[in-house]
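Lay summary. Proteins are chains of building blocks that fold into shapes, and those shapes determine what they do. In this project we predict the shape from the chain. Here is one chain we studied, written as its sequence of building blocks.
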Amino acid sequence: ALRQLADLLDGHDADAKELFLQIEPSLPAQHSGLVSRLKAAIDNYDFETAGETLRLLATACNLSLAKDSPP
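And here is the predicted shape, written in a compact code that computers can read:
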């Protein structure tokens, strides 16, 4: 889901907002600051900031957003 969100953000696709709302409850609470920044950026349709914040969140969670990595 994070990779799909990254793709939507990279494409400046407004569907990113709906997908974020679906996955937000599953995002780690220990990174609530990054999650809040991500939500604010998506709510403001600031897809560049949202994409950067999503990458920071993925790194903090030791996840890869690369298309060839396992889900």
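What the prediction tells us: The first helix runs from residue 2 to 10.
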